[in-house]
Every structure is written in C-alpha cells, then in structure tokens.
Amino acid sequence: MASLLHLDSSADSGTDSGVDGSSGAVSRGLTALFARTWQARQREAGRRYAYRYRDLAADPVPPLDGAYCALGRRVERQGFPPPDRVPALVEGAAEQRAWALTRPLVDELLAADTVLVGAPMYNYAVSALLKAWIDRVSFPGAFGRAGTAGCRLGGTRVVVVATRGGGYRPGTPGAAQDFQTPYLRAYFARQGVAPENVHVVTAEWTLAGVLPHLAGQQDAADASLAAARARLVAYAQS
Description:
Elements: E1 2-8, H1 23-44, E2 49-55, H2 66-77, H3 92-111, E3 114-120, H4 128-137, E4 157-163, H5 181-190, E5 198-203, H6 218-237
Parallel strand pairs: 1-2, 1-3, 3-4, 4-5
C-alpha cells in the first residue's frame, strides 16, 4: 500500500496564492498541490493508500530536553536497539513522556514510502518548526545505520519543497547563503535515504510581489513557480 507523510513547516498559514505572499504561504500551496495530485493518482490506479498530514505550526513538536538526551545516551550505550526495545530502557516519568512524544513521529516516518516536506527558508536555513521535528524524530537507532541492511529508510522517497523570498540558485551571488537545501540533503542522506531518492523542488523570488525592491524579479518568480508546479505534478504522478 502506498503511503505519504506530508509535513508543512511554515509559520505562515496563507493559501495557495501564487507569488503574492511569503515563501511559507507558497510552500503550503505547493505541498498541497503535490498531495492532491498524489492521492488522485493512487485513486486512478486503483491503489489503496495511506495519507498522513502534520502541520508543524498548528501542532509544534516540542524541543528536546534533558530526559530525551538521557534516554538517547542510554540507547546508544546499548548499541542502538530499534524503537520496539526502547521502552524497556526508559527510566522515570520524564523519560516516559519524552519517548511518548517521540515514538509517534518515528512511526509516521517509518510507515511512509514518500515523505513530502514543505521547507520555506527562514534566515537562510529551515524553520525552527522543521528543525524541532528533525531533532526529535532522529532518535538514536530509530532508522538503523545508513548504508547497511538494517537501514529502515533506504527505500524512502523524499520530496522537499524549498521556497525562498529571494534568489539562491547555484551560480548566483546568493548561493553561498543557502543553508536550507544542502542541510536537508545532508540530513536525509545521513538517515540512509539514497541521494537519488531526495528530490528538491525550489520556488524562488516569492516576495517579488510584496517587496518593492524585488519588483523587477516578478517574471523570474512566475517562471520559478510554474517550473516548481510542473516538477511536483510529475513527481506526484510517478
């Protein structure tokens, strides 16, 4: 059965409004387009599917605390046992709460064969909302070791929708300030996702319709958004 985990990490809850909003609003519109197209494709093919949506702004993931760290270190000392064996290592109510907050996120990720990540740029990197999810879901031993037979994300496909208010394409002056897409590629690779299974779709100059000094980039914004839409539809149908 096909399964999709859909994450939005924009603090902006705007709608699919094209380029006349923040990069976060545009990212939500683009991830929604992928999710709708993906579900329609499953129905057309007569496939059963599972769809899970998590809005990291409406339902934020709590940041890590001492209990999470203590439990994680204990798991590491035990040789990184899988999630099913972690409860036996929990000590005290605080660690029990930390694991109760963590395990559902781990299970959601492991259950998905496609992970859709809406990742608008905030101050040259990902949002704190997405970083909190990444920190908590990356519990020691949760996904096995990358490159080994025990890696649990080896067959997972990740589609990242990376939106940004300005221009950061490779070869441009802004490229050196892009800590958004290299970080996400490195993160998912470290968790064992094959590089060829990580697809990053960017939409740039999303603030061209908002900020007067970017008005000259409106054509570039329109072209970037159109290209992003086309790529996402193609990925969702494949």
